[in-house]
Amino acid sequence: MEMTGHPVSQPVFTAAERWKKRLPYVIAYGVLALTTLPVIFMYAWLILRSFSDKMVYGIIPVDFSLENWRFLWSNIDQRGSELPSIWTATRNSFLFAGTLTVLEVMIGTMAGYAMSRMEFPGRQSLLKVTLLLHAFPSVSLLIAVFYILNFMGLYDSIFGVVLVKTALQIPMTAWIVKGFFDDVPWDLEWAGLIDGCGRLKVWFSIVLPYIRPGIAAVSIFSFLSGWSEFLLLYTFVISDENITLASYLQRLISDPNTVNYGLLSAVSLFYMIPVLLFFIFTQKSLMQMSVGGGKYV
Predict the structure, then answer these.
(1) What is 151-210 written as a DSSP string?
(2) Residue limits of the ABC transmembrane type-1 domain (predicted)?
(3) In contact, 178 and 112? CB cutoff 8 Å
(4) Are strands 77-78 and 60-64 parallel, antiparallel or unpaired?
(5) What confidence score (pLDDT) does residue 66 get?
(6) What is the SS3 assignment for 252?
């Protein structure tokens, strides 16, 4: 017997019902647009101001020029004194951020593994105290850090500030990495141990590759933290040969009455370029980050 198909009728929505259905999306996108518009405007102003001699009414660029970018090929004269080369500051910033990243990731991964996998006296207390150590702001420790660096002969040394910054960052890094180690099945480690591998080889050859997204994410945060560091470097590094980009920017705005906003905008954009490139090439790893662990402490 032949079946006769009947077309399925689609529900018909009135204009009011369609608007009611779209209203949450309209509100969400409207709020996002309003909150991001000032940020977009600030970046647009920064770019336009860096390539113009002046701004009419503060927002309209006039006379396209590369004069504000002269710091790339010559030193800047600031109130009668010559600032260090921008390339010296850039080299020191990369040195500081890179060394910080290497130390923080190395020590943080070992500490995170110990807190996740090993049983030792005082482990529970250590887990609680670790986050407490991260809670102290850098500014509250400046005097104590000064005495320690001066005693060790590391005052006015980039490496000395690297050690201080690493010590302040490790507690949070260890906790984040611990969450990734918690998600690693014990069976993987037992299989390696049964095959004759030592604990260190299992950790290096089996466990670390398994948590590669976590290590990448921690590395990104470490580098960005080092690249944007200002307070410790400004306080404990005073010589021109050890200046970083953050301190270089501070030199440009040290006197509010003589600030060259075109030059300041250009240097600020130059300071942002490595961070933007770093984020573009590492955002995939950053989006895979998770601080949750599957195992309870």
Answers:
(1) HHT-TT-HHHHHHHHHHHHHHHHHHHHHHHHHTS-HHHHHHHHHTT--HHHHIIIIIHHH
(2) 90-282
(3) yes
(4) unpaired
(5) 84
(6) helix
Q: Residue 22 pLDDT more than 70?
A: yes
Torsion sign (Cα): 205, 207, 210, 215:
negative
Q: Number of C-alpha atoms within 13 angstroms, CB side, residue 114?
A: 17
Q: Measure the CA dihedral 152/156/158/159, to 10°.
A: -10
Q: Quick one: tokens of 219?
A: 């590395």
- 176: closest CA among 285, 286, 288, 292? 292
Percentage of residues of the chain with pLDDT beyond 70:
87
The Cα 26–Cα 38 span in angstroms is 19
pLDDT, position 209: 82
Distance CA 114, CA 78 (A): 51
| CA atoms within 13 Å, Cβ hemisphere of 57 | 2
Asked if pLDDT for residue 162 goes beyond 50, the answer is yes
**Which residue's structure tokens are 């909150």?**
35
Does residue 42 or residue 98 have the better pLDDT?
98
Contact in structure between 178 and 293 (CB atoms under 8 Å)? yes
Q: How far apart are CA 12 and CA 10, in angstroms?
A: 6
User: Measured on CA atoms in the order 279, 282, 284, 288, is the torsion positive or negative?
Assistant: negative
Distance CA 205, CA 256 (A): 55
Residue count (the chain): 297
Q: Is 80 exposed, middle or buried (0-12, 13-18, 19+ CB in 10 A)?
A: exposed
